[in-house]
Amino acid sequence: MSFKSEEDAQAYWKENVRLMVILLTIWAVVSYGCGILFVDALNAIRVGGYKLGFWFAQQGSIYVFVALIFVYAKKMGDLDRKYHVHDDD
Amino acid sequence: MDNLRLMTYLIVGATFALYIGIAIWARAGSTKEFYVAGGGVHPVANGMATAADWMSAASFISMAGLIAFMGYGGSVFLMGWTGGFVILAMLLAPYLRKYGKFTVPEFIGDRYYSKAARIVAVVCLIIISVTYVIGQMKGVGVAFSRFLEVSYEAGLLVGMCIVFFYAVLGGMKGITYTQIAQFCVLILAYTIPAIFISLNLTGNPIPQLGFGSTMAGSDTFLLDKLDQVVSELGFNEYTTDVRLNSLNMFAFTMSLMIGTAGLPHVIIRFFTVPKVKDARSSAGWALAFIAILYTTAPAVAGMARLNFMTTIEPVQGEYLVYEERPQWFKNWEKTGLLAFEDKNNDGRIQYTSDAATNEMVKVDQDIMVLANPEIAKLPNWVIALVAAGGLAAALSTAAGLLLAISSSISHDLLKGVFMPDIDEKTELMASRIAMAGAIALAGYLGYNPPDFAAGTVALAFGLAASSIFPALMMGIFSKRINREGAIAGMVAGISITLLYVFQHQGIMFVASTAFLGDMPRNWFLGIEPNAFGFVGAICNFAVANIVSRLTAEPPEEIQHLVEHIRVPSGVEDAHAH
Questions:
Q1: Would the CB atoms of B253 and A32 count as touching at under 8 Å?
Q2: Is B348 helix (H, G, I), strand (E, B) or coil?
Q3: Residue B502, CA distances (Å) to B134, B458, B463, B488 in order
Q4: Nearest to B568 among A37, A48, A80 (CB)
Q5: Cα separation of A73 and A77, whole Å?
Q6: Could you give the ipTM of this predicted complex?
Q7: B240-254 pLDDT tens trace
Q8: Which residues of chain B are within 8 Å of residue A50 when distances are taken between CB atoms?
Q9: B437: left (phi over 0), alpha (psi -120 to 50) or beta
Q10: CA distance to partner chain A, nearest, from residue B213 (Å)
């Protein structure tokens, strides 16, 4: 199977890139943003014994990373079906 | 033989018997089975194997210890070594799986229509993987000598024999199924002591939650107590101890992330799943399994540091009397990894941040994970399990690296460049011989670690970040990058990274040849050499783009190739041609 038309191919790629940009923005915000650049400001907030910035750097960013990949896999699966380029049997 | 040693022999022996059993069951009969396990591995199974492949002796033994003494600054390892999987999953893995070949240099050679580019990639791959494997072999030798009380050399030899057995016989197929078993061993070995320790200190059995809870029987938070104890002795506050500066932490994390995504032995694991969608979800499973260890590690680090501090200073201002030190303290003193010197002759252990009065003259960070079960007075079988876990972590990573090395020799150099006419049977034989050779080389380097071994992690990640990752990413996301651009980019990226590491840490890490000195004031924007792969990667991207724009466009069939790998459907089985 391949794309029905050249327009489909371009539209698929555009949607794919847009999804990636959104998810990678979240990826950068939780790690480089919350974990490093704005860590001092977030440390003013406490969740239990954790200072929030410290929590993002040592715990939270990792949980978000895992979620991001599964969201990506799910959304790309939907996109593949929308453009009929999925590889299910 | 005492009870602990007997228990250790039993548990380690049982895990080794399991690995050998799997090796006999999962023999490889074709090059496809040898290189990519036949291409039919379930995504969850591949995720588990990838987790074991990725988590090395460094993750298992050293990382929590590093964080214990770096505090917040140690977050660079936690974020860097996990965040890389996000970019691997979105930027590389599905597309490379669609392409459906056996090795990373093969893609680079085809995409940039150049044997030279393929050879440059092979050279990078071998440097990265060999430097990395030395550390694993050392880990095997150390784990054996410390827990089973055999010599370092004998331990190394046993480790080599085990890897030889399942890697030469089974190739990727044998390695995949052994790695799944090794993941189970190492994750149990890591989490069980952590649960006990968290329970002891906070009453909460989940370390990730216990780390943010109050101390058992008190309403002081564990992290506040930790901050207070370390600051009283003059160390930086645990939760805010920045590593040098924010820009350096930023660059360090980024280098580890893109280095992770560019490591060939991790990338080739995604060639073993059946479809493109499996490559995507498999990356998620891999990171989920890795996250179990990586979110436990900071809790282990903080709790181990606190336990260690309160052992030495049980009551504030009153240090432990040396003669009353606990048994584990004596055990680790024997290994030389822990050392005390009574500078003021009062018979007590002063532990401070001031080198002039500090009497804990040596605290090796590696003992934090290994001594943890003893410090927490856990039963012997837990200590034995930690030994088996450390070995599983080192062996699984070593096997993955050795496969990346041997397949690039037999498939890229021999079949791809020098002897394209050999048939499959000969190639399979060649890959087994290459594997045996790689194991012998790794073992030799484990016996005689070169002077530069200590600095090699920086080199491996720096090279992966500055050479392989940009070449792969541009090959997928740009149709304009051509042969000239890719080669110039890889060479520029490697050169600037090597130059920076060598000028501050010595040529091949011989310190006396460091012509700019290992001094922060000479560092470019305050970035330490270990964090420089990020800058190397930027140079690679920039040079590749400029050179490509100045030279001819890639031929039309290459543009079709790029379009082809962007379509997920119609994936072919991984094959040679």
A1: yes
A2: strand
A3: 19, 11, 13, 21
A4: A80
A5: 6
A6: 0.96
A7: 888 878 888 998 899
A8: 211-212, 223
A9: alpha
A10: 5
